Amino acid sequence: MLIVLTGIDGSGKTTAAQAMIDAARHAGNKVLLLRNHAGRRRMSLLGAKFGVHLPPRLADLIETAVRTFNVLNAHRRARRFQGLVVMDRHLHCQLALRQVRGLPRGRWLPFLIRTLPQPDLVIHLDVDPCEAYARVVARGTDSEQLEDLESLHEAYRLLPEFPRFTSIPAGGPPADVLSRLHAAMTVASHGPAGVFSPTDPARVDPAPVSRAN
């Protein structure tokens, strides 16, 4: 089973991915976590340190190259793996960033999204930009502007691919988010939960899980 996680910065993608991996391993399942970063955080930190801000097109060019390499390598590894594969971010994330920057979608990334093996589930972690901003500030490893998070929040919804995503409320305690992830995976597999079990199965509530619209 291949699952992709998307969402704005501060939505908890990395935390959710690690929680899914830990829970799957605890349940005795084979699982692989693959991270498809674009180097945006590192470039942002370096830019702030040296006072250099790349033009949007140049920043997108670098990020697209890094993310595409990571995604292609991730699919190569996933193809050889028998078990649950969780991808933290994908090419959809770069398309959303292009939307925010006012750049065209282009043809290359949409082509790759159509051509690469389709995930069994693309989960969008939906969180209020204000809560996401508070999380980014609290972790203190990078910086984001609330306005940018609000724009990215809207940009995801404008993606042509978004209606096929499964949107999950990502606010509140991580244990609640994990339960919603578990519910979404159960629905996607059309059968009893078996990929992993959350710490407290009684907390699984499929109600918050919905198709994006």
Automatic annotation (TrEMBL):
The family this protein is said to belong to: Belongs to the thymidylate kinase family.
Identification of the protein by name: Thymidylate kinase
InterPro entries from the UniProt entry: P-loop_NTPase, Thymidylate_kin-like_dom
Thymidylate kinase-like domain ranges (all copies): 7-176
SUPFAM superfamilies, sorted: P-loop containing nucleoside triphosphate hydrolases
Region feature (Disordered): 192-213
Domain of life: Bacteria
